């Protein structure tokens, strides 16, 4: 505790003010009691709450507050035992801060990018990722930062993509199966199975929720062309917002519709905005897939022309070579893409030679959980 730190009970105990290096931060009594970390409130080990909000009085009041040895000691009117709060935790979780965000802001651990990232594609060696926690942590960190990552020196065998998923999580099974084959086919059920080039897109926007990660693994690649491309959808949305704020708002405010019914017994539909914002304006998702777009019917007549102009412009920004990062996958190489942010594409390839890829879906929460646990372990070791 420093000489500057002080605590003041406010509003008859309904709140308090904590003054320190972070400035003056206010906390409500009910929030403090709900977020206590004493043994009666949180389970040892997993930290889950042992009480419900209904067990805390609606008029929760603080009767005494004192600072002692880096902790804030509070006494609540409805309880007899004081509760200690770590000052560093309170500063980290303080909510008494100016909003200061305009719609479309991104989390501080996200870095949007353009074609300049071509010289520094985030890449991990599969052998190191399996054996070296530091290498895996660095690759997962890059995945969270950029939304995609490449992996080299993997085994060249059927099903090797499951080993990639096992680095951080689990496979998400869909109507395509636990995994899907990407080869040229006659009368394919999906354009991904042809040699045609594909516009940058997010996968499966017709699902709710969408698969949040896609893994694509190369087993054979002797056909000419077929380079993989990725585009940062968040950067494209930022560019749209900068030049056309109204267009950005329209794509974020109104839902688009997506549909897939290419197989017997399958009719998948969703209704979500192309640019998805959290209630506080944080940009949390992009859905863009012209092949799977259904008729847009949720936009009022008065806004439809401007909506389509913004939709067209977003597509132009996504197609802009200045935003593309491309790379070729050789046998044993793969890449993982955040399907809620980064669009992926493929250049056309010839009918000669062979091209065999396998793909599957996974969930981002597994990747982020693995990274968070590794970062906590690293912090505890330090």
From TrEMBL:
InterPro entries: AlphaKG_dependent_hydroxylases, GBBH-like_N_sf, TauD-like_sf, TauD/TfdA-like. Keywords: Dioxygenase, Iron, Metal-binding, Oxidoreductase. Residues 121-361 form the TauD/TfdA-like domain. It comes from the Bacteria. One of its GO terms (molecular function) is dioxygenase activity. Its cofactor is Fe(2+). Belongs to the gamma-BBH/TMLD family. This is TauD/TfdA family dioxygenase. The lineage of its organism: Bacteria, Pseudomonadati, Pseudomonadota, Alphaproteobacteria, Rhodobacterales.
């Amino acid at each position: 505790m420093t000489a500057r730190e002080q605590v003041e009970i406010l509003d008859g105990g309904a709140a308090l003010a904590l003054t320190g290096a972070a400035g003056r931060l206010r906390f409500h009594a009910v929030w403090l009691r709900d977020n206590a970390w004493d043994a009666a409130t949180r389970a040892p080990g997993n930290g889950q709450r042992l009480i419900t909000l209904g067990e805390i009085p609606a008029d929760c009041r603080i009767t005494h507050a004192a600072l002692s040895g880096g902790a804030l000691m509070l006494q609540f009117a409805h309880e007899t035992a004081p509760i200690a709060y770590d000052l560093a935790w309170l500063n980290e979780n303080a909510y008494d801060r100016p909003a200061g965000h305009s719609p479309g802001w991104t989390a501080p651990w996200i870095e949007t990018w353009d074609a300049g990232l071509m010289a520094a594609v985030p890449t991990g060696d599969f052998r190191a990722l399996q054996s070296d926690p530091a290498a895996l942590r660095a690759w997962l960190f890059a995945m969270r930062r950029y939304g995609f990552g490449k992996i080299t020196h993997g085994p060249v065998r059927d099903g090797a993509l499951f080993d990639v998923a096992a680095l951080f999580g689990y496979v998400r099974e869909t109507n395509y199966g636990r995994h899907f084959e990407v080869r040229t086919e006659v009368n394919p059920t999906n354009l991904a199975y042809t040699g045609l080039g594909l516009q940058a897109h997010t996968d499966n926007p017709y699902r709710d929720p969408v698969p949040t990660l896609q893994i694509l693994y190369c087993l054979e690649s002797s056909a000419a062309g077929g380079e993989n491309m990725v585009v940062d959808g968040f950067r494209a949305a930022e560019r749209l917002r900068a030049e056309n704020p109204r267009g950005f708002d329209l794509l974020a405010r109104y839902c688009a519709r997506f549909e897939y019914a290419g197989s017997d017994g399958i009719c998948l539909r969703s209704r979500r905005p192309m640019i998805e914002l959290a209630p506080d304006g944080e940009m949390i998702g992009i859905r863009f897939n012209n092949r799977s777009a259904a008729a847009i019917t949720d936009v009022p007549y008065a806004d439809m022309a401007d909506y389509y102009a913004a939709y067209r412009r977003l597509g132009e920004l996504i197609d802009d070579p200045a935003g593309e990062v491309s790379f070729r996958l050789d046998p044993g190489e793969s890449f993982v893409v955040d399907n809620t942010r980064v669009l992926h594409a493929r250049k056309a390839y010839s009918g000669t030679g062979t091209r065999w890829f396998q793909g599957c879906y996974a969930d981002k929460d597994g990747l982020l959980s693995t990274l968070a646990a590794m970062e906590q372990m690293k912090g505890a070791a330090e």
